[in-house]
Amino acid sequence: MPSCRICGGVVSELLDLGRQPSANRFLARADIAREFMFRLAIGMCHSCTMVQLIEDVPEEIRYHDGYRYRASGSATHRRHFARVARELLATELAGPNPFIVEIGCNDGVMLETIARAGVRHLGVDPAKEVTELARERGVNVLDAFFGDSVAEGIRAEHGSADVIFGANTVCHIAYQDSLLRGVDTLLGPDGVFVFEEPYLGTVISQMAFDQIYDEHVYYFTARSVQQMAQRYGFELVDVGRSPLHGGEIRYTLTRPGRRRPSPAVGELLADERHRGLADPVTFQRFADAVAKIRDDLLTLLRDLRDRGSTVVGYGAPGKTATVTNYCGIGPELVPFVVDSTPAKQGLLVPGSHLPVRPPQAFTTANPDYALLFAWNHADEIMAKEQAFSRRGKWIRYVPDVRVG
Ligand code: JHZ
Ligand code: ZN
Predict the structure, then answer these.
(1) 336: β partners
(2) pLDDT tens digits, 371-401
(3) What CA–CA distance (Å, rounded) separates 290 from 42?
């Protein structure tokens, strides 16, 4: 039995999505023979309820100089993080000479607004090609994996932080002990540690099994985050909803007793109990629904191919690797996908090896169907692709397979 990375408790397996690559390791054809693969499966800890990967992938394989994800890749993300930054500037960073550290700042989508306001800040991120973009936006970056020793170095140089922030980063870090010790070292006595991350409740309610991939080591709930916070000497004092990736939760941690917890914490905990987010039956239903999605999607794509219809994939988010590799969708069913990220174009989706092309290829191919991998950006994409929507059909696969 594997043991919990947070508390050492027993973890039992909930869902196995098979042999999978590292979801953002887009690759050239020449590198196929050397591709890294692992068993993608999640389980839940019997004691602290943390849902987590059974096997994890070393950080250096996930976050490296060629890391392809760009957090600024959609207008929705850019707007959202500008708003988050403005809120922090108006609240936690409103005192004298404030300092904020972001763990995993990516291309500076959030810190850019902070930098422009002239507020002391530092992004910590190991992926050099992407942090170069942050530097071009005037953001200060330290190329490193955040942990206790890095936190000590930052504190020695800049003093303690009023805010430590992370978005789609904290659940990616397997070593929460070093991470939270680092937060303990760096955070001022009244500081806040704020992070917004994919939510297990959304994965379950939207059947978003494609949110499960190597980068997401943990699948947080208010309950599991509260227990983890306590274990490392923090208190969960607030939770809020963020609209990204189908609905995430933003958690706020402080040192114990510093702030009165907001009623939202108790409400979310009650909602999670009511929804059975720590009950094995919930996961059995989820696993059955996921298997049905795989069968329905494969049947549909094979039928379309046999009828001579053309299908192109739309968007190559990290999620594409999970769904294509789990379902067994290769270029014979979906000849290519289009994605607006220049760093992904010309490469192959990890594992399933669908070629990634620029968005213009979508218009040129004029397909009968578009398989929407970037489903969390549907509004933005529909607004852009009205001409296609008038003649072609979209295929969606979460929460179930639909054509329309
Ligand atoms: P998007 C990332 O997940 C990776 P991903 C990471 N591990 C994480 O945790 C989550 O974020 C939260 C493209 N696109 O944002 C751009 C178009 O082509 O869902 C992106 O490649 N045309 C850090 O990878 C992809 O879709 C468009 O019009 O699932 C979306 O990726 C738009 C709007 C997007 O992140
Ligand atoms: Zn545990």
Answers:
(1) none
(2) 999 999 999 999 999 999 999 999 999 999 9
(3) 13
Sign of CA dihedral 92, 98, 103, 108: positive
Residue 137's pLDDT band (boundaries 50, 70, 90)? very high
* CB of 208 closer than 8 Å to CB of 200: no
Q: Where are the beta strands (DSSP E) in 264-368?
A: 311-314, 337-338, 356-357
Taken in order 182, 192, 130, 370, the sign of the CA dihedral is positive
Q: How far apart are CA 232 and CA 185, in angstroms?
A: 12
C-beta 381 within 6 A of ligand 1? yes
Chain CA centroid to CA 64, Å: 17
User: Any residues with CB less than 8 A from the CB of 125 and at least 6 apart, and which?
Assistant: 63, 103, 104, 105, 106, 131, 134, 141, 142, 143, 144
CA 234 to chain centre: 23
Token pair, residue 285, equals 């239903």
* Ligand 2 mean position, distance from CA 52 (Å): 9
Query: Could you report the per-residue pLDDT of 207-256, keeping only the tens digit for each?
Result: 999 999 999 999 999 999 999 999 999 999 999 999 999 999 999 999 99
Cα–Cα distance, 285 to 306 (Å, whole number): 32
d(CA 76, CA 74): 5
Distances (CA, A) of 38 to 51, 59, 61, 94, 101: 18, 14, 12, 46, 32
Cβ 319 under 6 angstroms from ligand 1: yes
For 153-280, strand residue ranges (E) read 161-167, 187-198, 218-219, 235-242, 248-254
Distance CA 88, CA 151 (A): 21
Q: No. of H helices and E strands in the chain?
A: 14, 17
Structure tokens at 85: 């930054």
Cis status, amide bond into 399, omega within 30 of 0? yes
Q: Whose CA is nearest to atom 15 of ligand 1?
A: 317
Give the residue whose CA is nearest to atom 6 of ligand 1.
Answer: 168
95 alpha carbon to ligand 2 midpoint, in Å? 37
Q: Minimum-distance ligand to the CA of 7?
A: 2
